[in-house]
Every structure is written in structure tokens, then in C-alpha cells.
Design goal:
Layout (H helix, E strand, L loop, with lengths): L23 H22 L9 H10 L2 E2 H8 L3 H13 L3 E6 L2 E9 L1 H28 L3 H14 L2 H11 L2
Antiparallel strand pairs: 1-3, 2-3
């Protein structure tokens, strides 16, 4: 008897098949949660102190150097509050600090501590392995998942879903 794989942890099978595509955001959110949860467990198992949701902030600071909260929020394309929470988590772990900007006393810069720099170096190696693992997933899917997701974001930025719905509504007699 051939072994069967376990059912997916999450599906939209409870929805009417005709409306499932309308719940793409729910699937994208679940994918993000699954990747983040699995990454968090893996990072902890390897002894990393960086919370999984903060890895991109660590890598941004490692690559770009001291940055303001505004610069980080712009890079993320997210609200300051979310970035503030991520930076606070890095500060709690002793991986980042805030200090006054020597060029503008009204601004505060966020920078990695020496421990944060060391963590970023280790994360670089880990991210190379993660990329290879995700390349394997992409091969299974027959699609470059990051490119596909970025393309969807770009298309919806240029032509939002609401405008697409309005256009379809206008076509209906």
C-alpha cells in the first residue's frame, strides 16, 4: 500500500468553489503565517536570537547601516507602528539600539549592536540555505513564488482590485 501524505493544514474547501478565488488574501496570509512559524521554530532550534518576523529588519540594517524608523517603514512598505514593534523586539534581544542622529538631533537612528552584526552574518548563511529550500518549493510548484507574489502586488498596486470590480460591475447590464 502506497503511503499517503497528510492533508494540508489549511484549505478553502469549506467555501463555495465559485467564490474561493475571492479569498486569495486569506491564503496569502496563511502562507505568511506558515512560513513565519516554521522559520521561527527553525531559527530557535539553531540558536538564533532574532525573531523570525525581524530577520528582514536585521538584514536591512546590516546591508544599509544605521537607518531611521521612517526609512525602515518605507523599505517595508508598512506602517511605523509595525516596524516599531519589530525594532523593540530586536532591542529586547540586544541586537539593535536607537541613538540620536549626529546630523539631525530630531531623528533617531536604529543600528545593530555588535551582537546584532554577528547575528546578521550567521543569518546570511542561513538565508542562503532557506533560499535553496524555497527554490525546491518553486520547482515543485512550477513557479518562481517570490516573483509571482511581487508581480501580483505590482499589478494590484497599478490597477487595484476595487477598480477591477467596478469595471466588471459597469459591464453588467
Amino acid at each position: 500500500m502506497k503511503p499517503t501524505s497528510p492533508p494540508p493544514a489549511f484549505t478553502l474547501s469549506f467555501l463555495d468553489p465559485d467564490t474561493r478565488p475571492a479569498f486569495v488574501a486569506l491564503l496569502a496570509d496563511r502562507l505568511a503565517q506558515q512560513v513565519t512559524e516554521d522559520s521561527a521554530q527553525h531559527l530557535a532550534r539553531l540558536g538564533f536570537r532574532t525573531p523570525a518576523i525581524c530577520v528582514s529588519a536585521v538584514m536591512y540594517l546590516h546591508r544599509h547601516g544605521p537607518s531611521s524608523l521612517t526609512e525602515l517603514a518605507q523599505a517595508y512598505g508598512q506602517q511605523h507602528q509595525l516596524v516599531t514593534l519589530r525594532i523593540a523586539a530586536l532591542e529586547e534581544q540586544g541586537l539593535a539600539i536607537r541613538q540620536p542622529d549626529p546630523k539631525d538631533s530630531r531623528r533617531r537612528l536604529i543600528l545593530l549592536t555588535p551582537d546584532g552584526q554577528a547575528e546578521a552574518e550567521r543569518l546570511s548563511t542561513h538565508l542562503a540555505l532557506m533560499t535553496r529550500a524555497l527554490d525546491g518549493l518553486a520547482a515543485q510548484l512550477g513557479a518562481d513564488l517570490p516573483a509571482l507574489l511581487q508581480s501580483a502586488i505590482d499589478h494590484l498596486y497599478r490597477d487595484p482590485l476595487s477598480r477591477r470590480i467596478d469595471a466588471l460591475n459597469a459591464e453588467t447590464p
